[in-house]
Structures are given as structure tokens and as C-alpha cells.
Amino acid sequence: MCTLIFALRIMLFLGNLLKTQVSATRILMTAFTMVLVLNLQRVIPEVITASFEIRLFHYLHISVLEKRHVVEPIDCSFACLQNVFCVSFNAAAVADGKGKYWCELLSRNMHSDAAKLAANYQSHHYSLSQNSCGGEICSSQGKCRAISSRDGPFECVCHPGYVGKHCEIAAPECLNHKVLSEPDRHISYGRGQKEDSSLIPGWYRFQSYLYEKMLNYSVGHHKCHSDLTGWLKGSHPSIENGIVDREVCFFGYNNCCYRRVHVRVRKCNGFYVYFLKPSPPGNFRYCAV
């Protein structure tokens, strides 16, 4: 309880500070985002902090994600941290006739659009600090982005071909791979004569409106528009697991693993890639879900 009261006092102090005309052109504000909100009572099982750089009496002229009116300017910081696209906001320098402040949530900040930041005696501009990413820095292969999450207010968005919490892992196969997109690879399709015996060895991604990864459990035979259905034996890896070795089993003749093929699997950002070899001769096919 004492911690909560102290945090609220800091919020009120910073809110009142913005009502005064200060000579400094930039200050730092710490915003405490409430993880759970029930009616008017804010319950805080965990406190998340984020730093905002403030440019007093300035306005960033870019498209607005959302505009709202709040009791205190610090409430805009709560709204920004709860919006996955928000990285900055403009807020009124003084309250209106009803005692409220307008604020505009923005998807870019004063660093990315410095030329659009202009002096304005009616507003202040707030940008999420660039040197914080949940307390750690993204690598040069990633970009820090604000999120609303119990894991922290930031995440690293990786450039193509890189993965990891800080985009520190080079994964060229996540960028350079072929795509298997035939709808009839899905297990909802029945018997057929499709096969993968002519598949060129390499990295592949399963991507269709019907599926997103290789089947990883046995469904019997006569599926995926083939006779002997291929399924990944073992679980899919996490990003931290890197590239893992797996087997693909082909169901046939009442045997869930009538034939086997060695494959490799990596998790990329939001999808998986597989190093596949040609299937055995005949109606053997890799299936997807």
C-alpha cells in the first residue's frame, strides 16, 4: 500500500509539473502503467515502467492514431503503453474549460520525424525513450517498439533474417526459403496421388490460408491429397532452441511411421521453416495444419 501511495504521489507531482512553464526544453518522465483496470479502481499486481522524453511546448505534426480527453496528462502515457502501435503522443499544455487535457496517440516519434516537430505554445510532445527496451537494448538488427504486455512495455522487432529477444541471432533461412502453399496439403483433403519425391532439398515454409506449419501428429493415411501422410515427430522448437533435428514419419499400411525422413526445423518470428528432403518414391507427402 505504501508503494502504491508513493507511486501515485510521483504521478501527481509530474502531472502538476507540466502545468508550469519550465525553462528546460527536455525532461524525463516515468509512467506507471496499470496492468489491470476494474471500473475506477486500478489494481496493480505488477508495476511496469517506461521512460518518456518530453519536448515542452512542441507539437509533432503526423497522422493521429487516436485522440482522447483526460483528467491529467499522465493518463495519456497509460493509453500510449496500452496501444501496441503508440510510440509517442502530443498533449495539451493547459486544461480546457472543463478541466481536461486533449492528447493524441502517435505511431512515430520526434526522432523518426524530427523535421515535423515544431514549436507550439499550446502543447507538449512526449516520445518513448529510445535507449530502453524493457531495460535492455535491441541489437543493430532490430528496432525497439512499445507494447502493452506484462512482460514489459517494449519489444524488439527484428529485421528479416534475424530472431531472438534482442534480434541477436542471425537466421538467414528465415529470410531465404521457398513456400509450400498448395491448399490440398491440408489434412482436410482426402486421398490423392500427390507426392514430394521430386522436392528439391532446402528450407521451406508452409503458408496457406488453410495452414501455417507442418502437421505434428498422426492422422492416419489417405490425407493431404496423397496416400502416405507425412507428420513431424516431436514438438516444434522455440526461437531459443535454434535449429533442431527432427524426423518426419509417413503413415502407411497401419504403421504410423512406415517410412522416416530426417529434417531440420527453426522457429522464426511468427512462423517455422523446415529443411526438407525428397520424400520416398510413391505417394508420400508432407502434410500441414
- The N- and C-terminal alpha carbons lie at a distance of 49 Å
Shape: elongated
Largest sheet: 7 strands, mixed
Helix content: under 10%
Number of strands: 21
Rounded radius of gyration (Å): 26 Å
> Could you say which structural class the secondary elements and strand pairing correspond to?
mainly beta
Widest β-sheet, arrangement of strands: 15-16-20-19-18-17-21
Measured by DSSP, the beta-strand proportion falls in: 35-45%
The number of helical segments is 2
Mean pLDDT: 80
Along the chain, the helix and strand elements come as: HEEEEEEHEEEEEEEEEEEEEEE
List low-confidence stretches: 1-15, 17-48
InterPro entries: D8C_UMOD/GP2/OIT3-like, EGF
Protein name: EGF-like domain-containing protein
Keywords: Disulfide bond, EGF-like domain, Signal
Domain EGF-like: 129-168
Question: How would you describe this structure to a colleague?
Answer:
- This protein is mainly beta.
- Helices cover about 10% and strands about 40% of the residues.
- The chain has two helices and 21 strands.
- The protein has helices at about 1-15, 75-80, and strands at about 25-35, 35-40, 40-45, 50-55, 60, 65-70, 90, 100-105, 115-120, 125-130, 140-145, 155-160, 160-165, 170, 180, 200-205, 230-235, 245-250, 255-265, 270-275, 285.
- The protein has a seven-stranded mixed sheet with strand order 15-16-20-19-18-17-21, with no helix packed on it. A six-stranded antiparallel sheet has the order 1-4-10-7-8-6.
- Strand 19 and strand 20 form a beta hairpin.
- The longest helix has 16 residues, at about 1-15.
- The chain is elongated.
- It starts with a helix and ends with a strand.
- Mean pLDDT is about 80; it is low at about 1-15 and about 15-50.
- Keywords: Disulfide bond, EGF-like domain, Signal.
- InterPro entries: D8C_UMOD/GP2/OIT3-like, EGF.
- Pfam families: D8C_UMOD.
- This is EGF-like domain-containing protein.
